[in-house]
Design brief:
Radius of gyration: 23 Å
Low-confidence stretches: none
Mean pLDDT: 96
Number of strands: 19
Largest sheet: 6 strands, parallel
Bound molecules: 5'-deoxyadenosine, iron/sulfur cluster
CATH superfamily of the largest domain: Methylthiotransferase, N-terminal domain
Number of helices: 14
CATH topology of the largest domain: Rossmann fold
Oligomer: single chain
Shape: globular
Strand order of the largest sheet: 2-1-3-4-5-6
């Protein structure tokens, strides 16, 4: 596809802005006060980043924001399709919104990965009559025109048309500093056999490096200090551009931006994570020594069925290389338990790999069949109980390792960026280390958004605890 066809034109964005202004007038006329929106986001950071775009468009339409659906004139659910559980949760929430609709006539919108699927669109059309607007990931930039259609014609609006695009020219409405997400690319080409993402987010497309550098610079100037570069597979950044830049090149350019900040990224695919990437991480002082490198499974047979295109041995070599360059690097991963055909021997190989790598933490999932993916047609003989038992065994192993790894921090002084108030009653603040470890800290008022040296004096499976030192 031609790049001009992928990037939404400035004229199209300007036209949407016109729609926003028309919506602003219509809402003001109908309500006689500022309209209120409640945006509910499910799923990954990419969805959070999309919601920041949506908030920006709602802001243009004149909306203020509330966290309770009952107080809103427009409720939007940005949904996730990665596992059945995520879909059920989202649909459950959408179902409950019928009360809000009845009570105050709110406009109910459903968007995101779940909404991009044809069978979901059909289901919502039939069984969720109170949903006013449904749009898929590819229609996100058209949101103002969809709201306008609903307001003007009063009919339900469905838009799941189009293919993957790049949206420039809408400034995300981000949370307050110090943390920010910045999408560097969209979509995925990998078609791991269990995964719905390539079907709902389209093919890989990289944003122009100059646009990324400029946005990053503005974020630093605005006081953001911990910025995460987002993409389904950041290691293939630039493959679709013809300006000769790759992900390591982008990291080096970002590292040269003036200011006190740190940059991290997710997600990396082991088949594309190169020694060059680890060399770059080691050499760039502002790049966090932390990597999320999903392995999914320790059995080569299952990795083949998953279409992951690397072996456990290759993965372990990568880890060894990364640690040889950055002995303190924090390593996290995703693992799926109960993929079709996984047997006890395969599972033992996963446990074996986890013991060898000794991850700082793990995101573990029980395989969930996704309609339309390759794995959905694979024979799956194991029972849900057997899968659950394996899942619990894996969790038990990882919890021990997480605790042991956290205990290694006892007595150490870490540079922590304080990013909010602690939810632990005994502590004032929470913050993150360079390795993204959660730290609960005590301290005087007014330290949000500052860097502090923190001496770690307690460690649990999930967090570190410490005191500010000079
Ligand atoms: N079932 C269970 N887990 C899945 N993931 C992706 N698809 C599925 C699925 N069908 C997990 C993978 C991925 C993470 C984001 O979600 O581990 O890395
Ligand atoms: Fe899904 Fe695989 Fe793409 Fe990740 S790399 S989004 S798991 S298809």
């Amino acid at each position: 596809m031609n790049r001009n066809d992928i990037i939404i034109s400035a004229e199209n964005i300007a036209e949407q802005r016109e729609y926003s202004l028309k919506c602003r007038e219509l809402f003001a006329c109908r309500l006689g006060r500022q309209p209120r929106a409640c945006v509910v986001t499910f799923g990954c950071q990419q969805n959070e980043a999309d919601s920041e775009m949506i908030r920006s468009m709602l802001h243009d339409m004149g909306f203020g924001f509330v966290s309770k659906a009952e107080e809103a004139d427009l409720v939007l659910f940005n949904t996730c399709a990665i596992r059945e559980h995520a879909e059920m949760r989202a649909l459950g929430n959408v179902g409950q919104s019928s009360h809000v609709k009845n009570a105050n006539g709110a406009i109910i919108c459903v968007c995101g990965c779940m909404a991009q699927q044809t069978h979901v669109e059909e289901k919502v059309k039939k069984s969720f009559p109170y949903v006013d607007i449904l749009f898929g990931t590819h229609a996100l930039w058209r949101f103002p025109s969809l709201v306008y259609k609903k307001l003007f014609y009063g009919k339900r609006v469905f838009d799941t048309q189009g293919e993957g695009v790049i949206i420039e020219g809408i400034e995300p409405l981000r949370k307050e500093p110090p943390n920010a997400w910045l999408s560097i690319m969209y979509g995925c080409n990998n078609f791991c056999s269990y995964c719905i993402v390539p079907y709902v987010r389209g093919r890989e497309r990289s944003r122009d490096p100059e646009v990324i550098i400029s946005e990053f610079t503005k974020l630093v100037e605005a006081g953001y200090k911990d910025i995460t570069l987002l993409g389904q597979n950041v290691n293939s950044y630039g493959n679709d551009l013809d300006c000769g830049i790759d992900f390591s090149g982008l990291l080096r350019r970002i590292n040269d931006i003036p200011g006190e900040f740190r940059v991290r990224f997710m997600t990396s695919h082991p088949k594309d994570a190169t020694k060059k990437l680890f060399d770059t991480m080691a050499e760039c002082d502002k790049v966090c020594k932390a990597i999320h490198l999903p392995v999914q499974c320790g059995s080569n047979r299952i990795l083949g069925l998953m279409n992951r295109r690397y072996t456990a041995e290759h993965y372990l070599e990568l880890i060894e290389y990364a640690r040889s360059k950055m002995p303190d690097i924090t390593i996290t991963s995703d693992i799926i338990v109960g993929f079709p055909g996984e047997n006890e021997e395969d599972f033992k190989q996963t446990i074996d790999l986890v013991e060898k790598v000794r991850y700082d933490s793990l995101f573990t999932f029980i395989y969930s069949r996704r309609k339309g993916t390759k794995a959905a047609d694979m024979e799956d003989l194991e029972t849900a109980e057997d899968k659950q038992r394996r899942f619990d065994r894996l969790l038990c192993v990882q919890n021990r390792i997480s605790r042991e790894k956290n205990e290694l921090y006892l007595g150490r002084v870490c540079k922590v960026l304080i990013d909010g108030l602690s939810d632990d009653e005994s502590y004032t603040y929470k913050g993150r280390t360079e390795g993204f470890k959660l730290v609960h800290i005590n301290g005087p008022k007014g330290l949000e958004g500052t860097w502090q040296n923190v001496k770690i004096n307690r460690a649990s499976t999930w967090a570190l605890f410490g005191e500010i030192v000079d």
